[in-house]
Amino acid sequence: xxxxxxxxxxxxxxxxxxxxxxxxxxxxxxxxxxxxxxxxxxxxxxxxxxxxxxxxxxxxxxxxxx
Amino acid sequence: xxxxxxxxxxxxxxxxxxxxxxxxxxxxxxxxxxxxxxxxxxxxxxxxxxxxxxxxxxxxxxxxxx
DNA sequence: TCTAAAAGTAAAAGAAAGATTACATTTAAG
DNA sequence: CTTAAATGTAATCTTTCTTTTACTTTTAGA
Lengths: 66, 66
Description:
Two copies of one chain form a homodimer.
Chain A: E1 2-3, H1 5-12, H2 16-22, H3 27-34, H4 42-52, E2 60-61
Antiparallel strand pairs in A: 1-2
Helix pairs in contact in A: 2-3
Chain B binds a DNA duplex through α3.
């Protein structure tokens, strides 16, 4: 899976730390997500969708490895 | 978090076992998801979204506990 | 250039997802 | 009513997410 969190963060002018705080996770979790180190839970995806006001499907995408 | 997997399964006439097979998880995983026993990964949410041809946001919803 | 904020990285530990096996209960169809 | 399919449930185990702590590297601004 890949995601556009870094892009959305740029659009909304948010640091990893600020975004992390907004969805109640650690900064490392945001960082690891952006670097595709792991797959986040659906709750996190929904919270990010809410913050960026975009559907989950426009932020997260399945790729070959899924 | 809550979800409408059971409803979508009914619409598409799929058993838990069939859906499980389609997204390569165990039947118990589908069952537990429907009963809100745990939060699935975003990859699973995207696969379910694909199968039911509906956005993740129309199948999975944040609730008070999130 | 110097500094501070931001981002990357990593190890260890805890929490939760998901598999597996197995059995009980419910539902639908004959 | 009987039977088989479907669903619910539970225990144990493995894998993966997520936190915490801490350090390094990069980037932007004074």
